[in-house]
Amino acid sequence: MTDPLTLLHRDEHLVAVHKPAGMLVHRSKLAGGAGEFLLQRLRDQLGQRVYPVHRLDRPTSGVMVMALDAASAARLGETFAERRVAKRYLAVVRGIGPTRERLDYALREEDGSRPKAEMPALEAITEVRRLDSVELPLQVDRYPTSRYSLMEVRPLTGRRHQIRRHLSRRGYPIVGDAKHGKGNHNRFFAERLDCPRLLLAAVGLSFDHPAGGHRLTLSCALDATMTDLFGRFGWAGHLPSDSAHCLEAAAPATT
Asked: For 142-171, what is the mean pLDDT?
């Protein structure tokens, strides 16, 4: 029997769920032979229709919000489209990442409708901060030791594969990224450290609730694979936990 999805928050208007790595949100051209989808799993688990309002790449794990009615879906969709959502990710990258930096590289869309070179370059901004690092006494590439960093990532725009592309362009690809990373490091993590996945997780979302306007802040724990890796690397102090907090909307000013 399939384990139920972890719910981080649920009320009459929306539900927040931990999307497992490797699971597609819904059927699409990219589905291939995929047999299960988050939308279907969540609908069956709750016994009601759910409405997606944002996206999360298939290999990325973490918090996703779904609306439970059409009106809430429309309001939440506008909130995400207008960038009124604070997003927080954790990523394991190759090398010693920057202490703190704002990555401002325009990106061309990769939707497959036209050759990438013909697509317009769109504004893309990502803020990154190094939380920790580790140096392993093992030669994975050309150097006798191998260094990796734990990065906190806050995308301010929402371009496709933005985090993966920005970190790779800056010279610190995410471990497990088959397209933008490096195969020998990906194989080392998969075969020696039992981490056969993209090491990127959406661990936080904060936005105004579609009913009432109060601020809802969600935190999502890592899956077992990333949790075990953090323990091995001495990064356990950076592990997030599952939580949901509401901050009441401010009362209007009086004159």
From this structure: 95
Q: Which domains does the chain have, with CATH numbers?
A: 7-247 (3.30.2350.10)
DSSP 146: E
Distance of CA 70 to CAs 4, 39, 55, 97, 123, Å? Answer: 24, 15, 17, 42, 30
- Residue 228 annotated in active site: no
For the stretch 75-130, pLDDT in tens is 999 999 999 999 999 999 999 999 999 999 999 876 656 676 777 889 999 999 99
Mean pLDDT on 29-49: 82
CA distance 93 to 132: 11
Question: Length of the chain in residues, anyone?
Answer: 255
Which of the 8 DSSP states describes residue 113? S
Cβ–Cβ < 8 Å for 188, 175: no
Pairing mode, strands 61-67 and 200-208 = parallel
H/E segment holding residue 73: helix 70-81
What pLDDT is stored for residue 189 in this prediction? 97
The 3-state DSSP class for residue 128 equals strand
Task: Give Rg (Cα) of the chain.
Answer: 19
**Cα 200 to chain centroid, rounded:** 6
Give the global pTM. 0.92
Where residue 235 falls (left for φ over 0; alpha for ψ -120 to 50; beta otherwise) is alpha
Query: One of 3, 11, 44, 57 is an active-site residue; which one?
Result: 57
Query: Which helix (H) or strand (E) element contains residue 131?
Result: strand 125-136
Assign 251 to helix, strand or coil.
coil
Which of 1, 43, 33, 4 minimizes the C-alpha distance to 20?
A: 4
The number of angstroms, rounded, from the C-alpha of 130 to the middle of its chain's C-alpha atoms is 17
